[in-house]
Give the backbone structure.
Amino acid sequence: MNSRKLSYVNLSHANISSVTEISYLFNINSNLESIDLSYLDVSSLTKIEGMLEGKSYYKSVNLSHANISSVTDFSNMFSDFTSIESIDLSYINISTLLNMESTFYNCTN
């Protein structure tokens, strides 16, 4: 499968609680416009740095209800989103976050 042709990814309700690293996970996809990560369980991760960084063509991202309860590094998560119309972060617990450097850097729309 050529992931560069995907325009939408739905990982809602996915349980990847045993995964230990997903930093920069979607950096290779050049056509991805919308991603649904609602209810995603990444409870064992501490670092999701730049997972969605640098995607100027993203229009919507849904992280509502995602379990990021152990995440400490959220840096560069949404940086360079120049076409973004919607980011849903409702009902996520960010109390463990220590690094949010440049999380929304250069978000313009």
Q: What stands out?
A: The chain has a mean pLDDT of 83. The longest strand covers residues 8-10.
